[in-house]
Amino acid sequence: MYSSDDSGSDFEGFAPEVVAAAEKKLLDLLELYPNDLSDVDLSDLDFESSDSEDENDDASTSNTNQNGDQWTDRLRRFTIEDFNGTPGPTTILPSDANEIDFFNLLFPSELLEKIAEETNRYAESEQEKKGQDPKWRATTAQEIRAYIGIQIVMGIIVAPNQDMYFSNDSLFKPSGINERITRDRLDKLNQYFHVSDNSQNPRRGQPGHDKLAHVRTIMDVILPKLKSAYNPHKEVSIDEAMIAFTGRLGFKQYVPLKPTKRGIKVWMRADPHNGFVNEFQVYTGKEGRTAEKGLGERVVRDLSRSIWGNYHHIYYDNYFTSIQLFNDLAENKTYACGTIRTNRKGLPPTIAKSKLKKQGDVI
């Protein structure tokens, strides 16, 4: 077990000679206890679950927990079952497929039609309140598709302001967007673009209010597509990401140590072999003033539940790690690896109070 404090510093890995030395130590210990080489069934362990990062976890003060299970310094072999999943894409496209064909796997035409419908609905409702807008005309799914493509281009080729994309000076014009849409039309699409019917969402503070109502339509389509379009490899990563945002938003996060300090926090499960995101959850903040206990554990369970039973190996950092989570995943035929904070519940004092001075030291 590798112990980590809560400093958040990245672990860069062990040198080969350190790994070899640690392996020798392990083999020496196994030789000292030849009668204790039976397999360990993690499902027999049941330790008290840890709280979330916001709570102050108290480490165990005894090697025996409330259920009578005991830690021991005698290392035992543990049989790792073979991974039985089939990684890779579930839809094989023809050899002449291009980028848009892959995009269409995740973003179907039905979603474009829905966005066009909701954009037109919102434009009509705004004009009923404020009067007719002579510059507006109803949009279509085909135009919405082009609009999304323009947003992608603007994210790749970033100009100081939107007007520069429509410059007539070839020296300053960064792309050919102005050859496909006028500036006034893009302004109107930006003004009325909607993907959901806001009138169906209860007001803030009322039962049933959805903080993600503005994007719920897209999420309800994209999430199942992400899970069904690609099967991950044996190794799986779960971590947090930040979507940069500086506007007004009730669940906007400020994380000063992150490269993106302000924005929307998103929990993600991805395949580390290629970065494909299979599942994600948007963190919408606390409910009321009460912090959610066991938030990290809950996130890992939610994002990994659909791949339980295939003996995947999930990797995550000390924000998520707890003894109870390891046991729960093992019971569902899923393995995990992660650093752990020394104040997590369930750790024996030998581990919780230890000071590892060199990389490769084992306790």
From TrEMBL:
The organism's place on the tree of life at top rank: Eukaryota
InterPro entries: PGBD (IPR029526)
Comp. bias intervals (Acidic residues): 41-58
Region of interest: Disordered: 41-71
Domain PiggyBac transposable element-derived protein, chain residue ranges per copy: 100-358
The protein's name in its UniProt record: PiggyBac transposable element-derived protein domain-containing protein
Species for this entry: Pinctada imbricata
